[in-house]
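Subject: mismatched residue count in predicted assembly?

I count 224 residues in my input, but I want to confirm that the predicted structure covers every chain. Input:
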Amino acid sequence: GQQLNQSPQSMFIQEGEDVSMNCTSSSIFNTWLWYKQDPGEGPVLLIALYKAGELTSNGRLTAQFGITRKDSFLNISASIPSDVGIYFCAGQYGGSQGNLIFGKGTKLSVKP
Amino acid sequence: EAGVAQSPRYKIIEKRQSVAFWCNPISGHATLYWYQQILGQGPKLLIQFQNNGVVDDSQLPKDRFSAERLKGVDSTLKIQPAKLEDSAVYLCASSFSNTEAFFGQGTRLTVV
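Triage response: the counts match. Full output below for your records.
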């Protein structure tokens, strides 16, 4: 099935460092979503983006909807140990056929 | 507000047996999704409902998987007969109107 290209696949960082991950697609999306998944849990929505060029923050998290509508990035500033987990991007076409397509995830490890 | 409820949390069955998963979406959410998440991958859409109608089931292996949402609220996903490669986490998500999707905790299926 279709999946988005998400990178990097994994990251090992020191507590306090900033993190950046991105997602690209060959298709245009109307919505970009970023989720975090902890072990044994379902994905939890972090940020939703609805307009090309939109830049949205949620605490230490900042995400942008690319101008071409084919990409998005997520930044985490001043990482802390509880940021550990797998981050997924998801693109949605919108309308009645609003399929939500996921990337393969970025696994984040934070060393205290 | 109650989240998406799924049951059971875990299920172990032998190959060729059948299994069913249940999902109760967030109240008022017309869109319901079933995703399959294989270890180390992002969620893959199996089927999407809008109220009690199927919007997209193009990636549902219809020879063995079936899903229904008869009254436009709860949904069940069934596998019959199960194969080893069906071992995965089955996630249910719902959204108000093809916007942000909220996920349940998932059902972890192990086929032995």
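Residues 12 and 110 of chain B are 5 Å apart (CA to CA). Marking this ticket as 'not a bug'.
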